[in-house]
Amino acid sequence: MFDNSDGLSRLCLGTAQLGMDYGIANQLGRPDDAQCHRLLSGALERGVLCWDTAGSYGDAEGRIGEFLTNCHHRDQVKIVSKLGNPPTDLPDTGLRQWVTQEIDQTLCRLGVEKLAGWLIHDARMVNRYGAALWDAMNAQVERGVTHRIGVSVYDEQEFQHALGHPPPLAIQLPLNLFDQRAQHAGLLQESADRNDTVFARSTLLQGVLSMRPMDVPDKVRPLAVPLQQLQTMLDHWDTTPMDVALPFVLGVDGVDFAVVGVESLEQLDDNLDRASRSMPADLRAELSRAFADLPVELLEPRRW
Question: Is the pTM of this model over 0.90?
């Protein structure tokens, strides 16, 4: 289902921007219907066939569903969506029914019969429900409504906990020039050995890596210092953070896809171009060493 040998791009289209104003550097806001259709159609034409979404992304799933209804190539699209948190604590006996209802509603909004991936959106749910949650998720594979289950994680502990579940999983995690925790901890290699499918998200740290240091918002002002350090470093290589961000992530062993949210088709084309570039080994090594000690409060957007 996630085989890249058939020309499937390693960019996965993030769709949060389709349903809400998302990202600290978002300048265009939520696209109108015509822009949304143009973006989704253009992604399909360019081989960006893996799309990441969630019920919590405003009306993104509904807009994708409207597009796919009239799309002749809808079967080519591989959609990964996510299970949100229940409104209240559920007993284990009611968990499977609720998970089933949630995925059925997702399929209805998207207008599809099966997902490529169905992920637990908040890994803390695994701590709360344990094996009962995994059993409820596995039941959806048995029902034939998702090809693979998995989890979206934020840190090494959540990643390590996910690796305690039998493979293969779909795992989504933050990875960028500043946040290389999973790589340095060796978890990506362990996941690759299990034949998991790994999606790297936050590849631009919600757009911070595309900004000038003086333009960093006040709530993450301390990021201006490493951002200036990064730009000074890359000046010696005659390149920019935007030029190396995607090649760096896609060159990390164990990463299958990079989730990229865009506001326009022009941005998608720009990301496709950059993703196709290679990176000198010496520069990769330098970038891997430079930002190992940044505080987690700056690396996780949920803490901003």
Answer: yes
Show Cβ contacts of residue 269 under 8 Å, excluding neighbours closer than 6 positions: 46
What is the spatial distance between Cα 279 and Cα 296, in angstroms, rounded to a whole number?
Answer: 27
Q: How far apart are CA 173 and CA 170, in angstroms?
A: 10
- Please report, for residues 36, 138, 272, 274, the alpha-carbon distance to residue 11 in angstroms, rounded to integers and kept in the order given: 18, 27, 7, 11
**pLDDT of the residue at 292:** 84
Bond preceding residue 295 cis, omega within 30 of 0: no
| End-to-end CA separation in angstroms for the chain | 35
Question: What is the rounded radius of gyration, in angstroms, for the C-alpha atoms of the chain?
Answer: 19
Residue 4's pLDDT is: 56
Alpha-carbon span 198 to 216, nearest angstrom = 29
DSSP 203: T
8 Å CB contact between 18 and 57: yes
Residue type, 223: L
CA distance 247 to 258: 10
Determine the average pLDDT of the residues in 156-163: 95
DSSP three-state, residue 149: strand
Please state, rounded to an integer, the average pLDDT across all residues of the chain: 93
Are the beta carbons of 152 and 119 closer than 8 angstroms? yes
Pairwise CA distance, residues 250 & 175, whole Å: 10
Instruction: Give the separation between CA 206 and CA 260, rounded to whole angstroms.
Output: 10
| CA 10 from centre of chain | 12
Helix (H, G, I), strand (E, B) or coil at 107: helix
